[in-house]
Amino acid sequence: MTLTELRYIVALEQTQHFGRAAERVFVSQPTLSVGIKKLEAELGVQIFERLAHKAIPTQVGKQIIEAAKQTLMNADTIRAIAEATQGELVGNVHLGAIYTVCPYLLPKMIPALQQTAPEVKLFIKEAYTQQLIDDLKAGELDVALVSPPIPDASLFESLTLFSEPFYVLMPKGHALATKQAITAEALRGERVFLLGGGNCFRDQVLEACPGCEQPRLFDKNWVQGGSLETIRMMVSSGLGISVFPEMALVPDENIVVRPFAPPMPQRQITLIWRKSFIQPQLIKAIATSVVRCLGRSG
Description:
Blueprint: H1 3-15, H2 18-24, H3 29-43, E1 48-50, E2 55-57, H4 59-85, E3 91-98, H5 102-116, E4 120-127, H6 129-137, E5 143-146, E6 156-171, E7 192-195, H7 200-208, E8 222-225, H8 228-236, E9 241-245, E10 255-259, E11 266-274, H9 280-293
Parallel strand pairs: 3-4, 3-5, 7-8, 7-9
Antiparallel strand pairs: 1-2, 5-11, 6-9, 6-10, 6-11
Helix pairs in contact: 1-2, 1-3, 1-4, 2-3, 5-9
Protein name: LysR family transcriptional regulator
Pfam families: HTH_1, LysR_substrate
GO cellular component, one term: protein-DNA complex
């Protein structure tokens, strides 16, 4: 039994697909399949039930996988202890970030962190909040940048880094552009571009502006975008309006940006990490780099 084989079964449990599991752990599908069969043979039990298009854990398999997750977290703790004895600011760090943070914050944060901790090697993953939480629990990530609410928050340590307000983006010449500040009610009935389901920023926008969501499936005003950059281009083309977090604002001659009227909706950006990740100096270095690159005091 090896840690690699344990990582294989955790990846398969999360994806329920041999091909996607192999991609997650960066091996070929045959390699992953052979590794899992080898582990099953060694233990004398079937960990997964192989169906036509997916693999699901057996009852005993579920117990083994939970134990495997704990073992992998313990292994990471051992690694962290060893690295800490060599100096805190060394080693590999697997950092995750939500989609509405990663492209705007990390290109600024990483150079700042490299100045502070040049011996740290970062591995970056961009995903939805729930996937980042699952990866933290499985030991595949050490730390993550997310925006509350945080699922299973009691399992992690956390540090709120900063808050940022939301802004309304509209095409140049839009009727709302004459206003200096926009109320949430003013967005009701407008064609508002939203991110798709599963994105925490979409949920935050709808909480602040419930009128943005149109209940009728084919309502012409209800449009979902796959990314903020896609939505930005649609707004720039005059197709509708949207709501963006402050960090995602960039100059565009075809877009007018207006703040919300008080109280301004906002979100928090929080750094979370596994409790077994015992490198406080690295956590401090990451947090400081984030705050410094944005020119914030916290």
